[in-house]
Write a structure and sequence with these properties.
By secondary structure, the protein is an all-alpha fold. It contains 24 helices and 4 strands. Helix 22 runs antiparallel to helix 23.
Length: 631
């Protein structure tokens, strides 16, 4: 190769290296520098940062659960805790990787020369930085990123988008007045794209709602609906308008808003379409809907695409049945809704509350108390609903305990009066009924399991798949409780089933320790078992040597062994029953003002042939009850 050619090639190599070195500088405003850093920013760091951001944003949106029982927010983002309390970045945050890419792009390729950013791709970097911080709920640092773009990139095409993001962040930080003023100025002085207008009006609607101005929020949402091209937003904004009209007491306007969403089935997401259809039915009079609406809801419930909405479908169907005066179908519909609402605690609370009120109004206090027990943990404490439910529960607490104890005593006395063969037959029949009920319950749970698993991401599962039940603490606790109820407390040793019954713990009881000193305390082996609960373990049988090995008794034999064996035990139960009936009558009058319900219980206490200190006050209470009823 000629020497001149080698010299020329070396010169080109040195020149290329020199240009490469000069192009890496971020402090010199040259064309080569700008293009070099813009190219590396766009197709390297920011590209991968945007991929990470889109992935995490998609996961965030897919995991978001709409709560249609409350006013929807304009944006699908659940903020944890007070706004603005998070500042520092966390390595395990969902958007930490996207933020790290944005920070790398800014530090490595930023060209802030003479107070002006010369790398045009820094706009994308700062936007990515601000959005990542926003969705990581670090709103103050996000606001700083958006302000930097506005300050140093005043001529960029992304300035309108940045201003909207900035005001959205101001709303999150509790500054809705500032956001409204800036957005009005933006809409008046800048030419926005249709989607940018929709975003701006959406932020304004949220700001108006934060300021408790629902009428202004309705107008902003109407303007956003005219320009948005996003399917999710069309359904959300339309449904939210209906909710705001309901808050304003404008029933007809709310019905129109819901119907507009329902008329655009293909233009809105299915979630908003089905809920809008149900709410539009709820706002109409049941007499106007009639059986045609009930048939329509039954048809929807049978469709596979509505399996995630069967809980709400049956709930709204129950409300129509109630409006038509069909109480039994109303209760049946609520129970159907409850069966499918395993992953919706809000709906569970609403259904239990309605069932408790229904049974309470019809003086079925045992059923009302059972639903109140389930309802209280589902309600936020403190709240007006929790206080009302707690007040009712306190009224019923003592009464329910006495009613359960009275039913338990009556059941044991009925069994004790039967022959051994009849006792066994009765207990076997009760056991079969219990097994059938458990089988039906398990079948219903298996039927509802697919829909529940799709609606809820909770449960005993991990990122690698389901947890084996032996290692699940919840399942272990349930199993230990079931074992203790059936076998009692057993020592950790071989042949545990052959232990004497004396080693077993006393069975659980629904009875109470009476404060009434007139109620005798007998040493008899009274049963705490009834025919409806045949699975309680037995106590030590008289005359059995606890040290001798024995064959374990089956459940029926254990239950028969617990029945009172002599007249003294039977008389003790009858004596206790008199005091229980008197207390029931007293509670009906004092707590619930129901003298008509108190009379049968007081009559049982008075009519007993046994002597009891409660019989005289029961006679007087009976007289007062008849006087109150003018009978």
């Amino acid at each position: 190769m000629p020497r001149s050619v080698k010299t020329y090639g070396s010169f080109l190599g040195v020149a290329f290296i020199a240009l490469l070195f000069l192009g890496c500088s971020t402090q010199q405003n040259r064309l080569l520098n700008r293009e070099w850093h813009a190219l590396n920013t766009k197709y390297n760091v920011v590209y991968h940062g945007n991929l990470s951001f889109e992935e995490q944003w998609t996961l965030l949106q897919s995991g978001y659960r709409e709560n249609f029982w409350e006013r929807l927010p304009v944006e699908r983002l659940q903020v944890d805790g007070p706004a603005g309390i998070k500042y520092a970045a966390t390595e395990d945050g969902p958007f930490s990787q996207a933020e790290a890419k944005a920070v790398k792009a800014i530090r490595k390729h930023g060209m802030l020369v003479a107070g002006q950013e010369r790398n045009r791709q820094m706009i994308e970097s700062y936007l990515l930085l601000g959005k990542s911080r926003y969705y990581d709920q670090r709103f103050v640092p996000a606001l700083e990123a958006f302000r930097f773009i506005i300050q140093y990139h005043k001529a960029t095409n992304a300035l309108n988008e940045t201003r909207i993001w900035k005001e959205k962040t101001n709303v999150r930080l509790g500054n809705p007045e500032v956001a409204l003023e800036n957005l009005r100025r933006l809409l008046a002085n800048r030419k926005l794209k249709p989607q940018e207008k929709a975003d701006a009006f959406g932020v304004m609607a949220q700001a108006y709602m934060d300021l408790n101005q629902p009428a202004a929020a309705v107008e902003a949402l109407a303007a956003a609906l005219k320009t948005t091209a996003k399917k999710v937003e069309r359904g959300r904004y339309g449904y939210l308008r209906g909710q705001l009209f309901e808050e304003l007491g404008q029933r007809d306007s709310a019905l129109t808003a819901y119907r507009q969403v329902g008329a655009k089935k293909q233009a809105v997401s299915y979630d908003f379409w089905i809920n809008a259809q149900l709410r539009s039915m709820a706002l109409q009079h049941p007499e106007d809907l009639g059986d045609e609406a009930i048939e329509q809801l039954n048809l929807w419930a049978k469709r596979w695409e509505n399996q995630d909405y069967r809980d709400k479908i049956f709930y709204y169907q129950a409300q129509i049945q109630k409006g038509l005066g069909r109480d039994s179908l109303y209760v049946s519909g609520l129970n159907q809704s409850l069966k499918w609402a395993q992953s919706d605690p809000v709906l569970q609370g609403i259904v239990h509350e309605q069932l408790a009120d229904h049974y309470f109004d019809r003086k079925q206090y045992l059923l009302a108390a059972a639903h109140l027990d389930t309802l209280l943990p589902l309600l936020p404490n403190p709240s007006d609903r929790w206080r009302a439910a707690h007040s009712k529960k306190e009224k019923l607490q003592s009464l329910v305990e006495y009613l359960n104890r009275a039913a338990e005593i009556d059941s044991v006395l009925v069994l004790a009066a039967l022959s051994p063969e009849e006792q066994r037959n009765r207990l076997v029949a009760a056991q079969e009924r219990k097994k059938e009920a458990e089988a039906k319950k398990a079948a219903r749970q298996d039927l509802a399991a697919p829909a529940i698993s799709e609606k809820s991401a909770g449960g005993t599962s991990s990122a690698k798949g389901p947890i084996f039940y032996f290692y699940d603490p919840k399942q272990l606790a349930i199993g230990a409780e079931a074992f203790a109820q059936k076998w009692g407390k057993r020592a950790w040793q071989d042949n545990w089933r052959a232990q004497a019954n004396a080693s077993m713990s006393p069975p659980p009881t629904t009875g109470m320790t009476w404060n009434n000193t007139n109620t005798p305390k007998t040493n008899s082996n009274r049963s705490r078992m009834s025919a409806d609960a045949p699975d309680q373990p037995g106590n030590q049988q008289p005359g059995v040597d606890p040290t001798a090995p024995q064959e374990p008794l089956d459940e029926i034999d254990q239950q028969i062994a617990q029945l009172p064996a002599n007249q003294e035990d039977i008389d003790g139960l009858k004596h206790e029953r008199i005091g229980v009936c008197f207390q029931i009558g007293q509670l009906y009058v004092s707590r619930l003002a129901e003298p008509a319900l108190a009379i049968p219980a007081l009559e049982k206490a008075v009519d007993s042939p046994q002597e009891h200190p409660s019989k005289l006050p029961a006679l007087y209470a009976l007289y007062q009850a008849h006087t109150a009823l003018n009978s």
